[in-house]
Amino acid sequence: MYVATKGGERAIDAAHDWLAEARRGDPAIPELSVAQIREQMSLAVNRVMAEGSLYDPDLAALAIKQARGDLIEAIFLIRAYRTTLPRFGASLPVETGAMAITRRISATFKDVPGGQVLGPTFDYTHRLLDFKLAAEGEVQQAGRKPADDQPAPHVLALLDRDGLMEPLAPSAAVPGDLTREPLEMPADRPLRLQALSRGDEGFVLSMAYSTQRGYGRTHAFVGELRIGSCAVEMEIPELGFSVEIGTVELSECETVNQFTGSKTEPAQFTRGYGLVFGQNERKSISMSLVDRALRWEELGEEDTGAPAQDAEFVLYHCDNIQATGFLEHIKLPHYVDFQSELELIRRLRKAAGASEREAAE
User: Fold this and answer.
1) What are phi and psi of 240, to 5 degrees?
2) How many domains does one find in the chain?
3) I want to staple 289 with a disulfide (CB 3.0 to 4.6 A). Which of 55, 158, 208, 325 is the partner?
4) From residue 192, how far is each of 132, 219, 224 by CA, in Å?
5) Name one GO molecular function term (predicted).
6) 254 three-class SS
């Protein structure tokens, strides 16, 4: 028997109240503040800002609290809020070469100008639960090393200098903006990079991993991974020059990939690129690998049929908000659709049963 759900607005209000109660948890335990989330769950905050396309640590922390820690729901909240904000201008491209660095490593050169900076990383931890973190009381701070604000040249510039890297093709075209216009195919590289930068970390990671396992023409080295703060500048027409309006923390990855060449062109390494809000090195590395895989056509390579080389597949499926909306809509009422299919299958079974009886007679 199928019974229609009853309750309407009262049931929805009750569900909201129950959600608020579940979000708060045990009232005997102190409530988690937005500031605590911002400062102590910074990597989650960074992901919400990156995939929500809005750099605001306080709002991202608030969204995480409201979403009960569901990061995709928090990203949805941030994107929805972003649509309400007025747009009064555009900033200049950030200069990552002038980044105040907190972490900088290269897997291609041991000694690089400016040195390697390990920074805050899980790379050298033992991945064992630290039960001291569960103990009450303050943890003694060892002291944070200030960011290095000395300009550090990009590592790939060393290869550029000797003509060993493919040159970056200059473009006078104004890049599209995925936050204002829907994605259309074919998508140029700026649009692809935008989609990957705000794409779901898990999806982009799986695509990158697939290229490392042979599903794509990439064999990458991390030329440089750098994390730090960059100044954001904006041109003021009335002044005739640009002014600094703030800073953003960024993760940037440049990969050195298998080389290309021809009878007329000397062999050169190719490159992949990733740039993400906040400290999010897994995402920036993944992004650079997928970026390189998607460049197969412009580099004159053959299509191997790998998923990471299919721009339409990657770009149309990497957005977790679009995916969530389409996925979760099937839990909404579909009573009429289901009843029509239920009646159809009953008629088919009845007709099939009648045919079998006729055949038996």
Assistant:
1) 85, 10
2) 2
3) 208
4) 44, 20, 21
5) lyase activity
6) strand
d(CA 208, CA 193): 14
Sequence letter at residue 341: E
Is the Cβ–Cβ distance between 56 and 232 less than 8 Å?
no
- Domain boundary, last residue among 58, 82, 106: 82
Same domain, residue pair 185 and 256: yes
Domain range for 37 is 10-82
Domain membership of residue 338 (yes or no) is no
The amino acid that residue 67 corresponds to is A
Question: What six digits make up the tokens of 339?
Answer: 């009843």
Q: How many CA atoms lie within 13 A of 134 on its CB side?
A: 3
The packing angle between helices 57-66 and 71-82, to 10°, is 130
Q: Give the global pTM.
A: 0.86
Is residue 58 located within the same domain as residue 100? no
Q: What are phi and psi of 149, to 5 degrees?
A: -95, 15
